[in-house]
Amino acid sequence: MANSNIVLHVADVHKRFGGLHALADIDLQVEEGKTHAIIGPNGAGKSTLLNVIIGKLAPSSGQVVFDGAILTGRKPYQINQLGIARVFQTPEIFSDLSVLHNVMIPAFAKRDGTFTLNMLRALDSETTIREEAEHMLEDVGMLNRRDMQAGSLSRGDKRRMELAMCLIQHPRLLLLDEPTAGMSRHDTNTTIELLKKIKSRGMTKVIIEHDMHVVFSLADKISVLAQGRIIADGTPDEVRGNPKVQEAYLGGAH
Amino acid sequence: MANFMSRNDLLLLLGFTVVVLTMPIWLTPFGAGYPDLLQRFMIFGIFAVGFNILFGLTGYLSFGHAAFFGVGSYAAVWSFKLLTLDAIPAMIFAVLISGLFALIIGFLSLRRSGIYFSILTLAFAQMSYNLAYSVLTPITNGETGLQLTLNDPRVLDAAIGQTFVGQPVPTLLGQQLGGYAGFYFCAGFLILSFFFAQRVAGSPFGMMLKSIKSNQTRMQFTGFNTRPYALSAFVISGMYAGLAGALLAVTDPLAGAERMQWTASGEVVLMTILGGVGTLVGPVIGAWIIKYFENILSALNDNILTQFWSFLPEGLAEIVVKVTSKFVGDGWHLTLGLVFVIIVIFLPGGIMEGVRRMAATARRSDPPGAKSHQHQPAE
Ligand SMILES: Nc1ncnc2c1ncn2[C@@H]1O[C@H](COP(=O)(O)OP(=O)(O)OP(=O)(O)O)[C@@H](O)[C@H]1O
Ligand SMILES: [Mg+2]
Fold this sequence. Notes:
heterodimer, A: alpha/beta, Rossmann fold, six-stranded mixed beta sheet, 9 helices, 10 strands, 37% helix, B: mainly alpha, two-stranded antiparallel sheet, 17 helices, 68% helix, 2% strand, binds adenosine-5'-triphosphate, binds magnesium ion
């Protein structure tokens, strides 16, 4: 067992919402630099799992360990500062601000930490961060929209912008909750290329995706979640051939 | 200089300075060119500019900022009584004390957001108001209000052997701050306040405040601890309120608890919304308009109204006088409420939105060729 390069370990996590057992006995290990896909039918608990990892929800029991640090009990902003960024299922963006500012803000968190009183410096003089943000926007193919108000973007563009907001922080672990939902086939392919490019830089990713084309072009490992349990786990080929998975998910949905 | 301030900001600051300093001239035809009212324009302008740093940028709506205004007044009068009649130490003292006060109230209130935050600030302000009337009478002099007297110690003045004849008045380096001197003193602070607010709004810190208003959850998942940001904005706006309160004590050295009442807290909310929340100039304009109409309408009485409506047939004139008299004098708040309702319904962005809309209409009616942007620009 090459346990040494496990960067994220979700250990025996349970999450209950009243009577609903949304996550049951989840044990998930993600290797450094790998892309780990989580698939499963609607309501399986995929987003809930990410919510537990980033501290939006506290697990009912169990804990999450990231690179030796226990995340459970930490605040979301502390967890982010450890190097974890997330793209949400419904875009979480600053709708009233420009696209450029949306991408600059996370860069400030990375550079200046959780809080700084930099109120006498002019935003216009932050050229390094602005250029970095423009560069990031170019990477996701959105530089021409830099001055638009983020709220007026299309759904697919909001997602790409949110991806840029995460990537500018150079996180060690990137969590993606259906990053290509609402995108055209062309934009989906650009996003896949982009995510492959980041992979070559060694970023670890956990990706939730319904689009099997995306899953099989990116994932090194796949975990299948159904009704809060991991029912299968393995390489894409292993999972594809697993009859339980066929039944619970692949067969039904596609 | 290029990075210090953008050209637009600099022009705005210059324009604002000119408008403020020439107010005694251009307000005379409106019957408002006298020092007493002009001073109030400056003071409440400062109050509103500061309030907007909290409400306009972070979206946290405080219903208790009059508490800091009142604390500023009390602190300034105490400085006049104990230290010196010079205004500068009083201002510094007032800003520090109100900042400290805002730190405590803000720290407690910011444990909640939305309506619960507003209620908490309101509750703390009403508590301060009641304390000023009751338990704290030794500090506030209760209902009578805190005043200057001939036998105040004024240790600093005494130390340099300065004595006064007659009723003590605040000074600046020996110069009395009544009348136009008082106005220019306040105007200087309004311009400084405006400049500082501009810097805050145009800084990375200001951008963080705006993003808290836009999506606080995203801020937290982006690695920001949002509470100290909101608290800083709260303290800064509390200090602005204290500064305004101190200036009111400079121009009229009497501090009373009614300055801390919830109606006074509500007034600065109205000023900000009326002018335009989140804009730099809007809150100042809102403050000016409210103070102007307060001045005019509250001075009207039945006699003046009877004269005004005398061209109407007798029976009708009586009815009209009766109805309109409810909206003037002490009832001027009714007019204010009415105007406010109309603004919020038809022009939620306040007067500044009205100005923007008119500018947009004017641009649209321009001959084609001046094609506007395809994309909707931000902010
Ligand atoms: N905060 C919450 N309170 C109560 N129930 C919740 C909460 N969050 C999720 N649930 C429930 O937990 C279950 C799992 O939801 P989750 O959003 O994790 O599913 P998912 O796998 O992401 O589904 P989808 O593919 O539709 O996004 C659902 O039944 C959902 O209704
Ligand atoms: Mg989901």
